């Protein structure tokens, strides 16, 4: 049985703790700020760092136990393997970027492991991430920063679009409840179709869009006003911020 410690029980840490705690093959512990982290680390062979990147320096100063034989899994945005290695004196490190959908087993988790992580440990990481949803091992560490900007932050982009349509519905006279139902049901329905068919998002968009119809008018307006440019720029900003967090 694997003993896993989740360090940090914020939104993501709590979601990870709850998801893993359902698996009978794992013994999962949680660690909050008030807990004795060194005592809890002594109980585990694997620990997950689920704190904010800005808190990593304080974490590294608080750890006194030998971590050299333990497996460290970090979900911190931006913090590199080298920095974790130097800060915690740990050799076996995997960087993982899931997203909030792991709460319902629908996350996409990108991951990259250091050369000291064994093949058996990689298999364990892969299996663990499949509890959260889909997983993809990348061949370069910097791709974790890319996945952070695309998928890690992705749910917020989706919620923002829902929020925009919900607010528009209110402005044109729908009640709060009606506006929420219109916005959320539309996006959930569209996402469900994408999930349950092999047809690409591009082809599905074309199926919805009649030439010179209402959807065509809306999409032409988005193109004219630079929606694709705005989103691409936002993703680039998230990627650059992930790199900045390591400094």
Q: Could you characterize the architecture of this molecule?
A:
The protein is an alpha/beta fold. It folds into 2 domains: 2-142, NAD(P)-binding Rossmann-like Domain (Rossmann fold, 3-Layer(aba) Sandwich); 154-244, ProC C-terminal domain-like fold, CATH 1.10.3730.10. The protein has 11 helices and 7 strands. The chain has helices spanning 11-20, 37-41, 56-62, 81-88, 119-130, 142-152, 154-171, 176-195, 201-208, 214-224, 227-244; strands at residues 2-7, 26-31, 46-49, 71-74, 92-97, 107-113, 133-137. The protein has a 7-stranded mixed β-sheet, sandwiched between helices. α6 (142-152) crosses α11 and α7 crosses α8. The chain is elongated and about 65 Å long. The two termini are 37 Å apart. The mean pLDDT is 96.
CATH superfamily of the largest domain: NAD(P)-binding Rossmann-like Domain
In DSSP terms (H or I, runs of 4 or more residues), the helix count works out at: 11
> Can you write the helix and strand succession as a string?
EHEHEHEHEEHEHHHHHH
- The neighbouring-strand order within the major sheet is 2-1-3-4-5-6-7
Mean pLDDT: 96
Number of beta-strand segments: 7
**Structural domains: how many:** 2
CATH level-3 fold name of the largest domain: Rossmann fold
Rg computed from alpha carbons, rounded to a whole number of angstroms = 21 Å
Kindly estimate the percentage of residues that lie in beta strands according to DSSP: 15-25%
Structural class: alpha/beta
Main sheet makeup:
7 strands, mixed
**How much helix is in the residues?**
40-55%
Shape: elongated
Q: Uncertain regions: pLDDT < 50 for 5+ in a row? A: none
Give me the oligomer status.
single chain
Specify the CATH architecture of the largest domain: 3-Layer(aba) Sandwich
| Assigned CATH class of the largest domain | Alpha Beta
What is the first-to-last residue Cα distance?
37 Å
């Amino acid at each position: 049985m694997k003993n896993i410690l989740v360090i940090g029980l914020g939104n993501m840490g709590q979601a990870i703790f709850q998801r893993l705690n359902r698996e009978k093959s794992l013994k999962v512990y949680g660690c909050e700020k008030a807990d004795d982290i060194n005592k809890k680390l002594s109980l585990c062979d694997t620990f997950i760092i689920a704190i904010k990147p800005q808190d990593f320096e304080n974490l590294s100063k608080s750890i006194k136990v030998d971590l050299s034989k333990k497996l460290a899994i970090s979900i911190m945005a931006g913090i590199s393997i080298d920095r974790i290695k130097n800060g915690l004196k740990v050799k076996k490190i995997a960087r993982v970027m899931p997203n909030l959908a792991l709460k319902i087993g629908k996350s996409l988790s990108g991951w990259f492991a250091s050369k000291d992580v064994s093949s058996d440990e990689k298999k364990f990481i892969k299996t663990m991430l499949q509890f959260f949803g889909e997983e993809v091992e990348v061949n370069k560490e910097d791709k974790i920063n890319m996945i952070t900007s695309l998928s890690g932050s992705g749910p917020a982009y989706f919620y923002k679009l829902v929020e925009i349509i919900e607010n528009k519905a209110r402005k044109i006279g729908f009640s709060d409840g009606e506006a929420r139902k219109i916005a959320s049901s539309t996006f959930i329905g569209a996402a469900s179709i994408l999930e349950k068919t092999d047809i690409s998002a591009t082809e599905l968009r074309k199926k919805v869009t009649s030439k010179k119809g209402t959807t065509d008018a809306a999409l032409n307006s988005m193109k004219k006003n630079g929606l694709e440019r705005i989103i691409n720029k936002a993703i680039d900003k998230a990627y650059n911020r992930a790199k900045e967090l390591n400094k």
